[in-house]
Structure formats: C-alpha cells, structure tokens
Amino acid sequence: MREHRLLIGDRPVTLLAGPAGWGESSPWAGYPSEPAASRRAAEEAAFDGWPAPARDSVPVNALVEGQPVDRDELVGFPAVKVKVGRSDPDADVALVAAVRDAVGPGVALRVDANGAWDLDTAEATIRRLARWDLELVEQPVPGLDDLARLRRRVDVPVAADECIRSVDDARCLAVLDAADVLVLKVQPLGGVRAALRVAEAAGVPALVTSMRETSIGIAAGLALAAALPELPYACGLTARMPGGDVVAEPLEPAEGRMRVRRVAPDPALLARYEVTG
Predict the structure, then answer these.
(1) How far is the C-alpha of 222 from the C-alpha of 258, rounded, in Å?
(2) 233 closest CA partner among 56, 110, 95
(3) Which of 70, 81, 75 is nearest to 108 (CA)?
(4) pLDDT tens figures, 184-207
(5) At what angle do helices 144-151 and 167-176 cross, to 10 degrees?
(6) Helix crossing, 192-202 with 167-176: angle to 10°?
(7) Residue 255: Cβ within 10 Å count
(8) Contact indicator for 174, 200 with CB cutoff of 8 Å
(9) DSSP for 139-160?
(10) Distance of alpha carbon 234 from its chain centroid, rounded?
C-alpha cells in the first residue's frame, strides 16, 4: 500500500494506492462523517475495487448555492439542486423562484436544507416552495422521527441524507416509512458495498451525492451510482473540492451526465499538495 497525505486548501486528504486503484479519505469538518468510515471507503477502492457497473454513465444535477443565478451554468442538466435552509426563508423562496425561472418547467428542481429546519419551519417553507414544482427536498429536518412526521404533512417527496449512516438507520427509515428517497455518500457509509447494503435495507429509491471530494472520491460515487439496480434520479456528483484536484483530467459532466471511469492522480499535482515532514 502507498499512502499520500495531502492538504488541499485547508482540508486534509489521504489517498491510498493499491492493487485495485486509488481511494480517497477526506472527512469534511462540520459534516457527519466518521474518519474510520472514510478510511474503509478508501481501502475498499484501493484494495477490493468496486462491483460491476449496471450503466456506463450517470445523470447528474447542477448545484446552485446562492444569488445571482447563472442561467448558462445550468444548461443541459436534467436536474438542479438548490441549497436552502438559511435564516431567511424569504431569501430561500426568492432563490428557488429565480432558479425555476432560469431553467424553465422541463428541468427537475430539488432543494437541500441539510437538516437546518425544525418541523414547523420545514412544513411552512416547503409549502411555500411547492409552487415551483419541486422534485424532492433533501434532509429538511435533522432526525428520522421528524422526517417521518413531515412526510405526512407535505406533498413534496422527502429524502433522507445525514440521518442515515448505517444499515440499522436504513431499517429504521423503512419501519417509520420516513422518506421517499435515500441519499447515499460513499465515504460516510464506509464504501460502495456498504452503501449498497444501506440502500437495500431502506427499500426506497436512491441517489448518490459527493462530499466535495477530488476526482478520486467522485469516482467512487460514480461507481456506487453505476452499481445501483435502479437510478431514477440525477445524482449530486458535480461539486468538487475547493482548492484544487489531483487528477489531470478531472471527472466533469457533459450534457448532464458523467462517464463512469477510474482515475489516478497526476504526479505533479500529487506533489503540489503532499504534506512532507
């Protein structure tokens, strides 16, 4: 095994090289992801490889995180995700309205609150946003119990993300009938195979998103999306790590899709970010 410790911006990144390829462990400060799970995901990628793909490309969504909305950056994507959940619900409503105006009626529009709302705020805000024909809302409230309650109060499909970190969590989701969709991330779940087991236990459609990784980590997300039996939703794999990438030809979307492929670091880029001493 070869291990490379990097610092990209202010984010520590560990890359592992093994007989199956490269893996990434890059827990994100402030995001619920156990370092041990991220390490398992990197070791799987480097030593075990990934399951055989069911598809060679994956539909992906564009991401909007604030005003102004650049219409040109959204062209060609089948879906757009809008980050909401700030302290001003009126600003969230205005942002979603602006994005719907920019993309028109033919593009799926979803919002992601990252668990920022309480139950009543979530219900009120989702009802206001529903007029713009939302595909789904990701993690509007923090916990599964409130997610189940909210799902029965609103007509917009809800997706579970941060509250699912194990097969037991997924089984609880199924018992509570708490979500319409499951959001999977490779690193927090401990690898592609572990994520597939979580998806099976939840028993609802799944989509895959990233944690703003380098292309090494995004490749694992693509492998997971490619291995899912069904993939009815576009995946959130376009947001990459601020500060740089380690791959000379990064994984990028083309016409709203990303090709599933293995990638390896460029030696010069690896040397640029590697921590020595």
Answers:
(1) 8
(2) 110
(3) 81
(4) 999 999 999 999 999 999 999 999
(5) 30
(6) 20
(7) 10
(8) no
(9) --SSSHHHHHHHHTT-SS-EEE
(10) 10
pTM of the model: 0.96
Range list of H helices, the chain:
35-43, 89-103, 119-129, 144-151, 167-176, 186-189, 192-202, 215-227, 267-273
Residue whose C-alpha is closest to residue 84's, from 136, 29, 34 = 136
Give catalytic residues, as residue numbers: 83, 185
Based on its alpha-carbon atoms, the radius of gyration of the chain, rounded to whole angstroms, reads 18
Which structure tokens are listed for 14?
């560990």
pLDDT in tens, 56-95: 999 999 999 999 999 999 999 999 999 999 888 999 999 9
Cβ-defined contacts of 65-72 (< 8 Å, 24+): 66/95, 67/94, 67/95, 67/98, 68/98, 69/95, 69/98, 69/99, 69/102, 71/102, 71/103
CA distance 110 to 80: 6
Among the listed residues 168, 175, 197, the one whose alpha carbon sits nearest the alpha carbon of residue 184: 197
| Domains of the chain, start order | 50-263 (3.20.20.120)
The amino acid at residue 56 is: D
CA dihedral 102, 103, 104, 105 (to 10 degrees): -140
